[in-house]
Amino acid sequence: MADNRIWVCSSEHLAEGDYIRVKASYKGNPGSVVVFKHSDKHFAYLNRCVHMPRELDCEHNTIFDDKGQLLRCSMHGIVYDPMTGESLSTMCNGEKLTSIRIIEDQEGIWIKDKKVRSIDENH
User: Fold this and answer.
1) Is 27 helix (H, G, I), strand (E, B) or coil?
2) pLDDT tens digit string along 70-97?
3) pLDDT number for residue 2
4) Would you tell me how many other CB atoms lie within 10 Å of the CB of residue 54?
5) Contact (Cβ atoms closer than 8 angstroms) between residue 32 and residue 45
6) 67 CB neighbour count, 10 Å cutoff
7) Distance between CA atoms of residues 24 and 47, nearest Å
8) To pair with 116 at 20 to 30 A between CA atoms, which of 4, 33, 35, 60?
9) Distance, CA of 65 to CA of 92 (rounded, Å)
10) Which pLDDT value is given to residue 123?
11) What distance in Å separates the CA atoms of residue 8 and residue 112, rounded to the nearest whole number?
12) What is the DSSP string of 29-98?
C-alpha cells in the first residue's frame, strides 16, 4: 500500500507564527498548502483566499497580520481565525478557508488528506 503522506517538516522546525508553503494539488487543481504553528498547535489550510482565488501570501511572504494573531490575505486584507479558518472580515464573514488534514508523529508533520497530492517539482 502506497504511503499517501506528504512530508512538511520536523515539528521543531516550525516556531510559533512561522509557516511553510507546500506545493500540492487539491482535488486535482495545482496550488499550495500553508502549514503553521499558532497557540502551540499546528494547522494547515489550502493557500487560497475565500474572496478571490489568490494565495494568502501572494504579495508578501507572510500569512499573518502585523500582530501575528490572525491569518490575512496579503492582496485583499481579508482576515481569518487561524484555529478555525473562518473569515472575520465584513466581506466574506463566516466563510472558511479549506482545512487540510495533517498528522504529527515522531518524525514530524505530514499532510495526510485524501484530496491533496504532491506536485512533482520536475513537471
Assistant:
1) coil
2) 999 999 899 999 999 999 999 898 899 9
3) 54
4) 16
5) no
6) 8
7) 10
8) 60
9) 17
10) 38
11) 10
12) EEEEEEEEEETTEEEEEES--SSSS--TTSSSS-SB-TTSSSEE-TTT--EE-TTT-BB-SSTTTT-B--
Dig out the grid coordinates for 3 from the structure.
Answer: 504511503
Cell 489550510, residue located: 45
Distance between terminal CA atoms of the chain? 24
User: For the chain, which domains are there?
Assistant: 6-118 (2.102.10.10)
User: Which one-letter amino acid corresponds to residue 52?
Assistant: M
Is pTM, for the whole model, over 0.90? yes
C-alpha cell at 2: 502506497
d(CA 80, CA 64): 9
In the numeric block, which cell numbers belong to residue 17? 507564527
DSSP per residue, 87-115:
B-SSTTTT-B--B--EEE-SS-EEE--TT
List, for the chain, all residue ranges whose pLDDT scores fall below the cut of 70. 1-3, 120-123
Three cell numbers written together for 71: 491569518
What is the chain's length? 123
